[in-house]
Design brief:
Length: 151
């Protein structure tokens, strides 16, 4: 289980290759890459700035990973999340999950992303032609995350 919060970009191919070859019992690696869009809520976006609280953010991401590991039989997971000012088409986040079988990896990867969107302490500010604005949480993200609640 690995968590990295960084300003630097990441090499998806290298990260996935390292995960894929970490153990001979891995039969599946599932990944998600999030990137900056050039439009949001109908407005052009020139930059996206992500802020966080160092230490607190990493702990929150580690807790999300641990929750995924407690629910599914996964061999490993990776969360790389960038912070700072990013341009459209730049990578924001990589989530990857390895397991013996694809079903476990798909579920765990989707769970991690849904929880990242709602539980991770990141704040996003967009630059638009009308000025800067904070990105509000979306109801659809809360609905996606609520699917995973255990009774």
């Amino acid at each position: 289980m690995t968590v990295q919060v960084q300003t630097a970009d990441f090499d998806v191919a290298a990260e996935l290759a390292a995960m894929r070859t970490a153990s001979a019992d891995i039969g599946a690696v599932v990944s998600f890459i999030g990137q900056v869009r050039d439009i949001n809520d109908g407005d052009a976006v020139s930059t996206l700035t992500l802020e966080h609280y160092p230490g607190m953010t990493e702990r929150a991401l580690e807790q999300i990973e641990q929750e995924a590991k407690s629910r599914w039989n996964i061999s490993g997971s990776l969360i790389i999340h960038r912070v700072g000012m990013l341009q459209p088409l730049e990578q924001i986040v990589l989530v990857a999950v390895a397991s013996a079988h694809r079903g476990e990896a798909f579920k765990a990867c989707e769970f991690i992303m849904d929880y990242l969107k709602t539980q991770a302490p990141f704040w996003k500010k967009e630059s638009t032609p009308d000025g800067e604005r904070w990105v509000e949480a979306k109801i659809s993200d809360d609905e996606a995350q609520s699917r995973w609640k255990q009774s």
